[in-house]
Amino acid sequence: MANEVCLRTLDLERPWLLEQYQSRGGYEMLKKVLTEKTPPDQIIEEVKKSGLRGRGGAGFPTGLKWSFITRNAPGQKYVVCNSDEGEPGTFKDRDILRYNPHQLIEGMVLAGYAIGATRGYNYIRGEFWEPYERFEQALEEAREAGYLGENLLGSGFDFELHAHLGAGAYICGEETALLESIEGKKGQPRYKPPFPAHFGLYGCPTIINNTESLASIPMILEKGGEWFSDIGVKNSGGSKLFSISGNINNPGVFEIPMGTPFSQLLEMAGGMKDGRQIKAVIPGGSSAPVIPGDQMMELTMDYDAIAGAGSMLGSGAVVVLDDTNCMVKVLDRMSYFYHEESCGQCTPCREGTGWLYRVVHRIETGQGRQEDLDLLDDVAGKISGKTICALGDAAAMPVQGMLRHFRDEFQYHIDHKRCMVGAG
Amino acid sequence: MTDSTVTIEVDGRELQAKPGTMLIEVTDAAGITVPRFCYHKKLSISANCRMCLVEVEKVPKPLPACATPVTDGMKVFTRSPRALAAQKGTMEFLLINHPLDCPICDQGGECELQDVAMGYGSDVSRYAEGKRVVADKNIGPLIATDMTRCIHCTRCVRFGQEIAGIREMGATGRGEHMTIGTYIERSIDSELSGNIIDLCPVGALTSKPFRFSARAWELTQVEGIAPHDSVGSNINLHLRGNKVMRVHPRDNESLNESWISDRDRYSYEGLYADDRLTAPMIKKDGEWQETSWEMALEMAAAGLREIEADQIGALVSPSSTLEELYLAQKLMRGLGSNHIDSRLRQGDFRQDDAGSGISWLGMKVADLETLNSVLVVGGNLRKEQPILGHRLRKAALAGAGVNFLNPCSIELNYSAKQKVVGPAEIVDALAAVAKASGAKGEGATAELIQSASADDDAKAVAEALKKGGKAAVILGAMAQSHPDYALLVGLASAAAEATGAILSIVPVASNSVGAQLAGAVPTLEAGGKAAANSGLDMMKLLKMPRKGYLLMGVEPGLDFWDGALSVNALQSADTVVALTAYRSPQLESCADILLPMGVFAETAGTYVNGEGGWQSSRGVVKPQGQARPGWKILRVLGNLLDVEGFEYIDADQVKEELRALCNDDLPPNQGGNLSGKPARQLIGEGLLRGGDTPLYSIDPLVRRAAALQQTLDAGNPAVRLHPAEAEKLGLNGSDLALVKQNGYQANLPLQLDESLPEGCAWISTGLAETASLGQPFGEVTVEKA
Amino acid sequence: MSTTVAKDVNELFNPEVRSEIDRWIAKYPPEWKQSAVMAALRIVQDDNGGWLTTELMNDVAAYLDMPAIAVYEVATFYSMYELKPVGKHKICVCTNVSCMISKADNIVEHLEKRLGISFGEVTEDGRYSLKEVECLGACGGAPMMQIGQQYYENLTPEIVDAILEGLE
Ligand SMILES: Cc1cc2nc3c(=O)[nH]c(=O)nc-3n(C[C@H](O)[C@H](O)[C@H](O)COP(=O)(O)O)c2cc1C
Ligand code: SF4
Ligand code: FES
């Protein structure tokens, strides 16, 4: 049951070409919808039925999000795809862009049809030059074949789609920062409400979805919402792309059913490198609180199971850490990241992420003080839930997670001014 | 709950509000204090400081009161343990990188951060890391920066974008490295820039002229009225002892909202200019010497007494107080002369005979922003009267179509259509609009309209005025100083009438309307009623020099339409008595007796603003040296000259006497009916001069405000030509040019300016360097110096 | 009335750069030219040997009809814009968590030794500069780096040597 949705064409020689995508039935769904003039509500209903939850990290039900758009309201509406792929540990959308760009395009056109939008943008992170070129090439092919542009296949429905390139800013993965960025501004998140469904790109109603969410749409419509939902488990419909990396033998992207045991995923990824012990796993990108290895081995890969363990499935980026890793050093690096990537507009995140980083760094370099552990917890608590966007929470969660599960390593650093790992 | 209100509960109090109103507006109105830094009622909501977090029942996270719309039944706690914890958390974050240098900070004592910190901050900082330090950049003569103190509320950035209409400040960099500023070293050039000082909640942006001169708690605050334009912005003056230390805006929604122009903020510096006149002086054998008040007044009275009434003229500043204006005309008329004028920057008075009445804004100041369609003729509101410019910009942003018809192109901070024509052709262009409007006109204007050809531009403007809803035709300062102003008023009036637009004549000075009501114009008596016998207007008084003059608050050369003529005429008089706050070479060359008077905050008095509103203020500091308030000087003069009715006890009494003569409302502006041929006074043959009066050259006080004179808006004493024109005149490569006008001349720097029409030489008035030339619009020659 | 004659917008940049920027402008609604600012900055940066001068930013502002400060804000916000000269080959090494635990340190150390520079520096001959970057979304190939537009994954010091030798 692997590679059935977004990576279903991966076995082809050059799956990014239109002709190859079509050889697997690509664009058939779009043709069908356009010729049969499927009622848009029916499409949204199907997506709701599929149990698809946003693959960008927050896991918000996609069908529900689409239904917030007042389709018949006059004026421009937009479909925006989030290919910013910035969450550390995540590298799945890159594969969709490189190997299956047409399925994303088809998904975006269908999304536009469903919500009554005639324009779309795909926001691709600036470093993804090669995937960007692939995507541009696919757009070209699709335009030529009449899947993009005016009056698609004579249906009277128009849809134009463009790529927008980022330029290096994690925060632009946050949906409203991304919109600001397309508008030619700094990527500073907007305060919500209003939500993009009402006030989005250029002030118009907009849906924003992750690359994987949108690329899943054609298969969901082709095989039915129920089919998709049945692949997964309760509350976690479908299959999902997991980016697994770290101290393992065969890192990579795996499209597997939701609810697959982590141990099985680890096995697919070749198991632990050099036969080392699994120490910890970050199960959903670097903002997800860490889970100790033994506990992780008992979990399945779905929203509820991971949440039950005090973490989150996030973007499905799984970072596996073996017992040679110092957790203080790991947190030091992660805290540095959030401090560097804070957009700077709201006080708790701008000031707090730097404070967190400096205290963790102090501990890592042997300058820690006893009161620092409580201080870290306190500062993290003062950031989370008080910021404009979730980056504040994303910065606080790893700290809280590490202190929860590996407090002794931090204590050791403070007491001995050195690392416990390898200290015997 | 009705449809239009919801009921919420805040800290146990029930409050009503319009649905969708932000919570902080509701708590503010109810007097419940929620701390805030980024929120400001006049700016967009950014919700970035997170200081206003409050607890809302059933919501797991604290919410920012500034960005949370109220909904019915909402239960809010602004001081619950959770709310306070969130607010304290923010405070702690704000302070970790804030230098705690309050003792040396100019904001000390009036710092929002300091105030809130008292209530929320914990005194011991747990932050043991080094604090952020930000390198400062010089942003010009008006605003001092200390960006290390900045708390990134972005009020200043939003002000630039939303109110000033030019983005000069920004937030560069990201995260902790985000810096508020200009990024590159450059000056902030908005004419409203000083408002960011008030907006800044900390001491990052402070007043440069004020810097380190006083501590907030040493200052007393008194109310005042700004003296430089027809808005009459409400201000607070901050005094230490007998000195005005700085000026801040005082909120008045119907006039200046929360803002004041830089001119009104910084002109107080002119009070302390080196050339203040501090004692009465008389000229004896060509030498100036100090004397006593008795002596000076006695001599003034004697000098005037000797001259027959018809040979005396009074030229008074339209920035004088209403009381001064009223007493000056009462004195003149008491002596038997109707020769008084305050319209010093106007050159064409033909409409006086045509029954044109009182000219004024024609509407409320606040109404400007409700206009849907506007034609501004000969005006640059933004750089004439910044608050009016701001109101007009608001109209434009709300969708109004704004058209300009000017002899030069102007820099705008919103989109509008500009038609730039030569100084003489502005009459034809306006006639074309009138024609396209279907106006007939009367007398001279009728003929102009008939012979005009309504081109596409004119048709578009006329069409816009007609179908625009609420429309106005506005005559600005350049129109009013045009040699064919009478024709422009007539045409504008005809066009306005035909399109249903309001005719608006922007009063050029703070008391231009007051001067008319006071009778300080030759055609109107006190109360603004037509005078039985008209006196001579300002130009006639200069062209047919009198033997005696009474001057009040004016500087020959600089404050007159025709600078050179004013100096010549006044020099030739037998007796010139000048009430003045300043000495200046030109004044000293003309006058015989100088009587030191107080200005601005030194004098109690009333200003009638452009919309006809009367506003009075007290004298809040003593006039310097022996200077006295103008109304008192005039009172004594009146007594000495045996004029009846000069027994006043205070300024208020003077005002009330005049008030009793005035109607409550001003009648709409009139075009007047010019009979006879359309005598064009400005005919476009050779090179024509065009000239504005720069923002900071408008009156003696602001001309002496040192910091303002260092800004870009300070006048540019040059002759500007289109490059093609310069080439035609063989001036390529010259830096200096010799300008000749009516037999006068000046050597001026030459500048090329592509935005000017060819055939036009632009030379500003009101500047020392150009004071030796004549009228702002007229024939000139420009040659190699 | 300004006395300095503004640059003619149509004379800014060379024709290739202009037409490339125009291609991006065309992607957005006509009243949103500003949306092309990120692309424009990237294009002029590439054309200028990899970094942006204040003058170039001003030109972009003029071309897109934006306030200059708004362009500075963008150029200083995104990490891929360089405000100081960089090497002909800008080597960006990821040191974020997946790469870190896959021994990115070794790669950094090797590069520093071989090139004689640290992060943020340019070799004397101007050929290389070294930059530490955050996760580039290629953790499956950790440790990794980017040079120019190209990703290089599964690095070892030997592979790094081979890559550098293969560069022009
Ligand atoms: C700091 C931050 C970074 C994010 N980065 C990404 C990202 O790189 N890619 C992504 O798809 N979503 C990202 N998100 C989530 C988006 O805001 C948004 O929820 C998502 O694009 C919605 O699409 P979905 O519903 O299909 O998941 C990020 C959120 C935050 C707060
Ligand atoms: S939480 Fe951080 S990234 Fe998000 S808006 Fe606030 S400062 Fe910006
Ligand atoms: S005042 Fe509400 S967040 Fe700043």
List unreliable stretches of 5+ residues of chain C. Answer: 1-5
List of distinct ligands in this structure: flavin mononucleotide, iron/sulfur cluster, FE2/S2 (inorganic) cluster
Strand content of chain B: 15-25%
SSE arrangement of chain C, N to C: HHHHEHHEEEH
| Residue-averaged pLDDT of chain B | 95
What strand line-up does the widest sheet of chain C have? 2-1-3-4
**Number of helix segments of chain C?**
7
Spatial arrangement of strands, main beta sheet of chain B? 14-13-26-25-24-15-16
- What percent of the residues of chain B sit in helical stretches (DSSP H or I)? 25-40%
Secondary-structure-based class of chain C equals alpha+beta
Largest sheet of chain B: 7 strands, mixed
Strand content of chain C: 5-15%
Instruction: Measure the end-to-end span of chain C.
Output: 51 Å
* Computed Rg of chain B: 28 Å
**E-strand count of chain C:** 4
Kindly summarize this structure in a few lines.
The complex is a heterotrimer of chains A (424), B (785) and C (168). Chain B has 785 residues and is an alpha/beta fold.
Protein model, in words:
The complex is a heterotrimer of chains A (424), B (785) and C (168). Chain A is 44% helix and 13% strand. Chain A is α/β, with parallel strands linked by helices and 424 residues long. In chain A, the strands form three sheets. A five-stranded mixed sheet of chain A has the order 6-5-11-8-9. In chain A, helix 3 packs across helix 6 and helix 5 crosses helix 6 (101-115). Chain B is of the alpha/beta class. Chain B is 26% helix and 19% strand. Chain B is built from 23 helices and 35 strands. Chain C has 168 residues and is an alpha+beta fold. Chain C is built from seven helices and four strands, in the order ααααβααβββα. Chain C has helices at 15-25, 37-47, 54-64, 68-77, 97-101, 104-115, 157-166, and strands at 89-94, 128-133, 145-147, 150-152. The radius of gyration of chain C is 19 Å and the shape is elongated. The model of chain C is unreliable at 1-5 (pLDDT under 50). Classes of the chains: A alpha/beta (424), B alpha/beta (785), C alpha+beta (168). Flavin mononucleotide binds at residues 54-58, 60, 62, 82, 84-87, 171, 173-175, 208-210, 213, 389-391, 394 of chain A.
